[in-house]
């Protein structure tokens, strides 16, 4: 008998808004199409993380997201990345788990436990969080 796959951990972060493209609908449309193509390619390479490419997240937040993904993958844990700046189909999850002004990044276990903020995204703490399930 097959076991149902475990639900993924949810990893919330926020990409930066680029004001240099405001009002450029044609360019934005073309960029969205290219991003969509790039995202599809990225998704095909990464089954554990079916959402937002980590390149979209700035500085320390981006490094923390990549670290969480690497540790989660090494422990066999599925992680779903959700960009709070552009949640798309994940709006309901963003509303449910990232209300108000959470410290980002935010990692939510299937049990509902939370790990919030850059200071929490260190290897030992991430490993314990993923192992606890």
Report what the structure shows:
- The chain has 133 residues and is an alpha+beta fold.
- 41% of the residues lie in helices and 12% in strands.
- It contains 4 helices and 4 strands.
- It has helices at residues 25-45, 59-74, 91-97, 123-132, and strands spanning 9-13, 79-83, 106-108, 114-116.
- Strand 3 and strand 4 form a beta hairpin.
Structure described in brief:
With 133 residues, the chain is an alpha+beta fold. It has helices at residues 25-45, 59-74, 91-97, 123-132; strands at 9-13, 79-83, 106-108, 114-116.
How are the secondary structure elements laid out?
Elements: E1 9-13, H1 25-45, H2 59-74, E2 79-83, H3 91-97, E3 106-108, E4 114-116, H4 123-132
Parallel strand pairs: 1-2
Antiparallel strand pairs: 1-3, 3-4
The value of Rg in angstroms is 15 Å
Q: Beta-sheet strand percentage?
A: 5-15%
Runs in which pLDDT lies below 50 for 5 or more consecutive residues are 18-50
Shape: globular
Please count the beta strands (DSSP E, at least 2 residues each).
4
Calculate the terminal CA-CA distance, rounded to whole Å: 22 Å
* Largest beta sheet: strand ordering: 2-1-3-4
Helix content: 40-55%
Mean pLDDT: 79
Tally the helices: what do you get?
4
Class by SSE composition? alpha+beta
What sequence of helices (H) and strands (E) makes up the elements?
A: EHHEHEEH
The biggest beta sheet reads:
4 strands, mixed
């Amino acid at each position: 008998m097959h076991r149902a796959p475990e639900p993924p951990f949810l990893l919330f972060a926020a990409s930066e808004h680029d004001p240099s493209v405001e009002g450029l609908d044609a360019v934005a449309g073309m960029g969205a199409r290219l991003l969509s193509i790039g995202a599809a390619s990225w998704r095909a390479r990464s089954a554990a993380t079916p959402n937002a490419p980590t390149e979209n997240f700035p500085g320390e937040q981006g490094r923390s997201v990549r670290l969480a993904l690497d540790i989660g993958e090494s422990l066999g844990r599925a992680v779903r990345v959700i960009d709070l700046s552009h949640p798309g189909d994940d709006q309901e999850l963003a509303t449910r788990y990232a209300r108000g002004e959470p410290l980002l990044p935010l990692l939510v276990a299937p049990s509902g436990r939370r790990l919030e903020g850059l200071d929490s995204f260190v290897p030992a703490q991430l490993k314990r969080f993923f192992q606890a399930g």
